[in-house]
Amino acid sequence: MRSLVLLAVLNAVLGMAMGLFVSAFASTEFQAVQFMPAFLLPQFLLSGLLGPRERMLPALEAVSDLLRR
Q1: CB of 43 closer than 8 Å to CB of 67
Q2: Mean pLDDT per segment of 10 residues, for the chain of length 69 residues?
């Protein structure tokens, strides 16, 4: 149970940090929304949902391993 709470807190802190990072570069809310695909698309493509991670190129598989942690 403690590890689940810790994971939830870490996820919230990471989400807030990513939002602050994007807002530092965006001057309007619309620009911030336009930045989101740059963060979400690579995570989606390397997650293994579209194809097995084992069939990726070794460099992409290594990046995928880093995103999973």
Answers
A1: yes
A2: 86 84 85 82 77 83 75
